[in-house]
Design goal:
Blueprint lengths: L2 E4 L3 H10 L5 E4 L4 H6 L14 E4 L2 H4 L4 E4 L3 H10 L8 E4 L12 H8 L4 E6 L4 H5 L4 E7 L2 H11 L4 E6 L2 H23 L4 H21 L4 H4 L2 H10 L6 H11 L10 H16 L4 H10 L5 H9 L7
Parallel strand pairs: 1-2, 1-4, 2-3, 4-5, 5-6, 7-8
Antiparallel strand pairs: 6-7
Helix pairs in contact: 4-5, 8-9, 8-11, 8-12, 8-13, 8-14, 13-14, 14-15
Organism: Pelagimonas varians
Subcellular location: Cytoplasm
Family: Belongs to the NAD-dependent glycerol-3-phosphate dehydrogenase family.
C-alpha cells in the first residue's frame, strides 16, 4: 500500500522522514525546487530528507497513492480539495491538521467527506511537534476512523519504531480535541505573557479542558477520547511548551508584542469559528469567546482576565 503526503510544511515533512523508514513515500508541495536541491526543509533545518521520500510538485502523481495524508493548514484545506477533480473512491484520506473551518464550521474530516464522499476518511492527531517526529523521538498519536477495519490497516501502515499510533472510532472527539486545545493554548500563553503566573495557567488548562469536554459531549464525542492523547494529552503539550505556535501567539498578546503574521496559528481561526457556533447553539464557551475577542483585537488581556475572573462562583 502506497503513501503520499500533501503539504511539505514542518509536520508533513516530518511525517515523510519518519514514514520513509517503512518504505517509499511521496511528498507533494507547490514549490519543491529548494527541497530537491538541498534534501532539507527550511521548516526543519539540519534534518535530511531520506532518498526514500519522492518529492513532487505534480498533484496527480501524489494522488496515485492508496493512503493520502493531508498536512495542509486548516483554513486552506477546502481550497485544496476544490482543486482535486480526480475520483478518490478507492483511497483513504487522512487529515493531519487541527481546527474548524471558518467558512463552513466543519472540521478537517468534514471537509474531506464533503469533497470526496466515496473515500475513506480518518484523522491523525495528538501531542506532537514536527521536529520530534523527524528526529525519531518517541511520539504517540491518535488515529481516528469511523470504520475500524480501515483504521486498523492505516494504523499499521503509519506506525514506525518511534511513532506509535493508538486507534479510535471516535472521529468527532479526536477532531475536537485537536482543534480546541489550540484555543486554550492561546489563553494560557496570554496568561503567562501578562505575568499572571503558573497557577493562572493551571486554572485555564483545567477550565479549558472542561469547556472542551462539554462542547465535545454535545457533539456526540466520548468522554474517554477527550481524556486521551487527542484531548488532554495534546492540551498538556500545547499549553506548556514554547515550541507551540498557539502558545507563542498567546505570549505575544500577553506581552503586547507583535506576532509574525506569516506563522500559521490554527487556534485563532478556531476560536472565531467556535464563538459563532456557541452563539448558534446556546452553549457556554467563555474561554473560546475570550480568545476570539482577544485575537481579533476587540479586547485586551486585562479585559479578558477581568471577564473570566468575574464569572459566577459555583460548584466545580
Amino acid at each position: 500500500m502506497s503513501i503520499s503526503i500533501l503539504g511539505a510544511g514542518a509536520f508533513g515533512t516530518a511525517l515523510a522522514i519518519s514514514l520513509a523508514q517503512n518504505g517509499p513515500v511521496t511528498l507533494w508541495a507547490r514549490d519543491v525546487s529548494a527541497m530537491l536541491e538541498t534534501r532539507e526543509s527550511p521548516r526543519l533545518p539540519g534534518l535530511k530528507i531520506p532518498d526514500a521520500v519522492h518529492i513532487v510538485s505534480d498533484l496527480d502523481v501524489a494522488l496515485e497513492a492508496d493512503t493520502i495524508l493531508l498536512s495542509i493548514p486548516m483554513q486552506r484545506l477546502s481550497g485544496l480539495m476544490d482543486r482535486i477533480d480526480t475520483p478518490l473512491a478507492d483511497k483513504t484520506l487522512v487529515a493531519c491538521c487541527k481546527g474548524v473551518d471558518l467558512r463552513t464550521g466543519l472540521g478537517p474530516t468534514g471537509i474531506l467527506q464533503a469533497a470526496k464522499p466515496d473515500a475513506s476518511v480518518a484523522i491523525l492527531t495528538g501531542p506532537s511537534f514536527a521536529a520530534d517526529i523527524a528526529r525519531g523521538l518517541p511520539t504517540a498519536l491518535t488515529l481516528a476512523c469511523a470504520v475500524d477495519a480501515v483504521g486498523k490497516r492505516v494504523q499499521h501502515q503509519l506506525s514506525t519504531p518511534s511513532l506509535r499510533l493508538y486507534r479510535s472510532t471516535d472521529v468527532v472527539g479526536a477532531e475536537l480535541g485537536g482543534a480546541l486545545k489550540n484555543v486554550m493554548a492561546i489563553a494560557c500563553g496570554a496568561a503567562i505573557g501578562a505575568g499572571l503566573g503558573d497557577s493562572a495557567r493551571a486554572a485555564l488548562m483545567t477550565r479549558g479542558f472542561a469547556e472542551m469536554t462539554r462542547f465535545a459531549a454535545a457533539q456526540g464525542a466520548r468522554p474517554e477520547t477527550m481524556a486521551g492523547l487527542s484531548g488532554l494529552g495534546d492540551l498538556a503539550l500545547t499549553c506548556t511548551s514554547d515550541l507551540s505556535r498557539n502558545y507563542q501567539l498567546g505570549l505575544a498578546l500577553g506581552r503586547k508584542e507583535i506576532f509574525d503574521p506569516s506563522v500559521t496559528v490554527e487556534g485563532a481561526a478556531t476560536a472565531q469559528a467556535m464563538d459563532r457556533i456557541a452563539i448558534d447553539t446556546g452553549l457556554s464557551l467563555p474561554i473560546c469567546h475570550a480568545v476570539a475577542a482577544l485575537t481579533q483585537g476587540r479586547v485586551t488581556v486585562d479585559d479578558v482576565m477581568a471577564q473570566l475572573l468575574s464569572r459566577p462562583l459555583k460548584e466545580e
